[in-house]
Structure prediction request, 75 residues.
Amino acid sequence: MSENYFIRQVATKDILSNVANFCSECYTPISYNDTIFYDMTSYRYLCQKCKNEIEERVDSNCNFIDAKPDSLFNL
Prediction:
């Protein structure tokens, strides 16, 4: 998988108040100073667990191997 698929960040007060305070995939709350990942393809913040699950479903060209047809962010 491309190294540029996800951007690792620390959840700052600005991110939590202006962008997202929960994972966009599983809706787990994100707390201040948590490690989060910005999904460069679907433009959303994810927790570590969801980032890892997405990496498993995506091939090296960032194409979903088993795409879910009912997903809001389906590629």
Notes: The first strand starts at residue 6 and ends at 10.
